[in-house]
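haha ok so turns out i had the wrong file open the whole time. this is the CORRECT one, sorry everyone. sequence first:
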Amino acid sequence: MKILERAALLSICIAVSLLGTKFARAKEASMVDDFVLNPSKPYVYLVLDHVGPRKPLRDGEANKGVWLRLVNNCRLPLVIIASKASANVADGAFWVQDEVVPNKPSPGTESEGAGVGYEPGQEDLTEIFLHPNEGEAEVRGAEKAARSSREVTKRPHGYNDGYQPGPQVLKVIPPGGEVLFSLPINHVSKTWHFEVPFRFALKQEGTIRQPYSYVAFFWDDLPDVYRSGASLATQRCK
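then structure:
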């Protein structure tokens, strides 16, 4: 009898646990729906508009660029650093602040301790660690790997740290809004990518700083039809 009672109690506990998990997942989905406008897409993302002619803004830049739209897919406004608005780019900017970052080293060249562990249920979160470098040691490792490879093109400076091609302004992107901008085609290659920093346009209260993040664009994000031309343009920017 006790065995049956224990089995029944165990069954009830399992049922309650499964029901709790179901409600937790439903609540999580509801919170995502409340925050994201289109649940099928990230809360902030880049859309490739086209690759085409672009007026060079600094010496040595190619006359070809990558044109993108930064989309705010959440219910909070975002703020980025960009150029002043131009009549030539409707509701957009000539350029936005970006950083050109070496890709993560290939397997076997990472810095010690670069592996990231995760627990069951976190598998879908590990994609964030596939591309960006997590520390200065990995950036140095990526640079060393690039120098020892056949890739001899020098990684360009992004539009940051004093390398901006003109006056900077803050640009607020409202929920559901977007900004069209362009960057030189050589800001992305097989060995580096670019990252556009952003933060939520929320008023800072007290001394606690608001967090910031970035959205990245990689060589793999370029359609095949554009990659050969992008490689040639990058080589001409040595």
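Residues 108-114 have pLDDT under 50 and may be disordered.
again sry for the mixup
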